[in-house]
Design brief:
The protein is mainly alpha-helical. The chain folds into two domains: 16-97, Flavocytochrome B2, Chain A, domain 1 (Roll); 187-515, no CATH class. Helix content is 53%, strand content 6%. The strands form four sheets. It has a three-stranded antiparallel β-sheet. A three-stranded antiparallel β-sheet has the order 4-5-6. A hairpin with a 5-residue loop joins β5 and β6. α12 (289-301) crosses α15 (361-375) and α14 (350-358) packs across α23 (517-553). The longest helix is centred in the C-terminal third of the chain and has 37 residues, at 517-553. The protein starts with 15 loop residues before the first helix and ends with a helix. It binds protoporphyrin IX containing FE. The site of protoporphyrin IX containing FE has 27 residues, from α2, α3, α4 and α12.
Length: 554
């Protein structure tokens, strides 16, 4: 890797137009604390993956880079500095998100894209529908308030109407989120939020909240050891179903520590924490730490964005926004999330299928892990280059002890093996519920590139209220909003940090979403039900169109 070339004046002021030109040429330019960073040479080495950087191109990435990195990593980013910018940087929309940029000398033609995606829930709300449903009948609504049944609409008008106009009609009234509750997106307001957020970060550091509570981890270890021992004892005793439950409970609990370690939130040493994460995820759990990091890092940066966040891309089973009806292109998977007839059927029933599907969530994670390792997505250079090899060894180890020694050798009958496998995997379902709970009911709108990082995190993430003695069950994931604001704070300090964040939210007037587990679950089921209802209406509309075309054709 060659950082920036020798003799370059790193403090040269680079104009906005010049930066636009560099990005148009395909360079990975981002801004960190007024420094212009060119990350091209670093990309193959980056432990955070390529997409994390690509989503920051053209943007001020100061807050994302600060909270996702160690101090040393942030210092390293400075070695890729090619210049500086003056004043407050106005974000471009990154190319990966559809931003368009003019090459040098290409002054006319394409407009600078700096306002962000317009295909949001918010923009959908503002467009006026042409068609609507009156009961089960598709009608054309007139501005006068009257409506005409579909059978009276001319065939030209029907064929001219596009699919999105139906989606608009259907989703017009179903938008759940009250955006007026959030601060305005003008520069002064957002800068104020950013300023207070950074001050809060300094306070968090000063109060020692980044220091890991190792005693709390000793208690965690004792719990894991107890659960794992109970799994072995009951297995030995021939109580296979009970044994499966204890193994599942061990996995369920261990995942929380893997999550902490993946965020380098235990020792804060990249290699040690990654080693802990690989031990738990691959060797003990059979899941790929690298797969999880790759998707989770992106999730932290583009939280709840239907096109970009893999954590809400669950078609054909779930759609948390009507925008999925448009068969979106996933920039994470690099494929189209097809909203086909199977998805149409599943999404209409998604609020009933939510919990049953979650029971099988862990099986999906194996598939994702193997795909990740087979594709060789881990960085091949730099500090993370050894991950893939050790993860493949971990997978072999897991299938040896779990698949061969436990399931094949220790359990005698096919039925006992089946019930052991199902129970051990299904018992981890609360974890999947917990992960989805924090985001599924929250906003999925794209409010553009001028929304600050803290506001976006708080708009897209909810916390779960629970008594302190139950913290072990939620494993820190109940403080998801706090965690999204400061992902590397050790888990056992999140409850203390919550108080500070609540005060910050009051100060900057951003609502802090906090629900009990039951209420939060109701919110999620409600959202899934609402989108499911929209899916049913869309299906009816499409059916009506097909029937009316037949009518006109004959
Ligand atoms: C040239 C610029 C960059 C450099 C030199 C850099 C360097 C590093 C390094 C050394 C690590 C290892 C963990 C650590 O020590 O903290 C890391 C991890 C990470 N980086 Fe960057 N980074 C850069 C840009 C970015 C950007 C723009 C983002 C997106 C916001 C990003 C997101 C991440 C994430 C999410 C991780 C965690 C990786 C993991 O899963 O362990 N990085 N980066």
């Amino acid at each position: 890797m060659s950082p920036v070339r020798a003799g370059l004046d790193r403090n040269r002021i680079i104009s906005r137009r010049e930066i636009e030109g560099l990005i148009a040429q395909g360079q990975l330019i981002l801004i960190v604390e007024g420094r212009v960073i060119k990350a091209d040479a670093w990309l193959p080495y980056h432990p955070g993956g390529d997409k994390a950087i690509r989503h920051m191109v053209g943007k001020d990435a100061t807050d994302e880079v600060t909270v996702l990195h160690s101090v040393e990593a942030k210092e390293k980013a400075k070695t890729f500095q090619i210049g500086r910018v003056e004043g407050i940087w106005k974000n471009f929309k990154p190319p990966i998100q559809g931003g368009r940029f003019r090459l040098p000398g290409q002054e006319n033609g394409i407009d600078i894209q700096e306002e962000g995606t317009e295909s949001s829930d918010a923009s959908t709300r503002s467009s006026s529908p042409v068609f609507d449903l009156s009961g089960d009948v598709l009608v054309k609504r007139h501005t006068t308030g009257t409506s005409t049944p579909l059978s009276s609409v001319s065939s030209e008008e029907l064929s001219a109407s596009t699919r999105p106009s139906f989606i608009d009609a259907i989703t017009q009234k179903e938008i759940d989120f009250d955006y007026a509750k959030y601060p305005a997106l003008d520069e002064a307001t957002q800068q104020h939020i950013i300023e207070r957020y950074r001050i809060l970060h300094e306070r968090i550091k000063a109060e020692g909240l980044y220091q890991c509570n190792y005693t709390a981890y000793a208690a965690e270890m004792a719990r894991y050891t107890l659960l794992f021992s109970l799994f072995l004892i009951t297995l030995r005793a021939g109580w296979y179903a009970t044994s499966g439950i204890f193994l599942g409970a061990t996995w369920h609990q261990l995942v929380f520590t893997a999550h902490d370690a993946c965020h380098i939130g235990i020792t804060h040493n990249f290699q040690i924490d990654t080693g802990i994460a690989i031990l738990i995820a691959d060797f003990i759990g059979g899941l790929s730490m690298g797969w999880w990091k790759r998707s989770h890092n992106v999730h932290h940066i583009v939280t709840n964005s239907p096109e970009h966040d893999p954590d809400i891309q669950h078609l054909p089973f779930f759609a948390v926004s009507h925008r999925f009806f448009d068969s979106l292109f996933s920039t994470y998977h690099n494929w189209i999330l097809k909203y086909d007839s199977f998805a149409t059927t599943m999404v209409q029933m998604q609020h009933y299928l939510y919990y049953p599907i979650l029971l099988f969530g862990r099986f999906n994670l194996y598939v994702q892990s193997w795909m990740f390792l087979a594709m060789g997505y881990s960085p091949k250079k730099g500090i993370a280059r050894w991950h893939r090899t050790i993860e493949i060894i971990g997978q072999c180890f897991f299938w040896y002890w779990f698949g061969y020694l436990v399931v094949y050798r220790s359990i005698p009958t096919a039925w006992d093996r089946f019930s052991f496998i199902m129970l051990s995997h299904m018992i981890t379902a609360p974890l999947h519920a917990q992960i989805t709970l924090s985001h599924f009911a929250m906003s999925t709108a794209d409010l553009g590139v001028h929304e600050s990082f803290p506001q976006r995190m708080l708009r897209t993430t909810m916390d779960v209220d629970c008594p302190q003695w139950l913290d072990f069950f939620h494993g820190g994931l109940q403080f998801q909003a706090i965690h999204h604001l400061y992902p590397r704070i050790p888990r056992h300090n999140l409850r203390r940090t919550q108080k500070l964040v609540q005060a910050f939210c009051k100060e900057v007037d951003i609502p802090y979403a906090l629900f009990g587990f039951v209420d939060g679950s109701k919110q999620v089921i409600g959202r899934l039900g609402e989108v499911g209802r929209q899916a049913a209406m869309l299906a009816k509309c499409q059916q009506a169109i097909v029937e009316s075309s037949d009518y006109y054709m004959h």
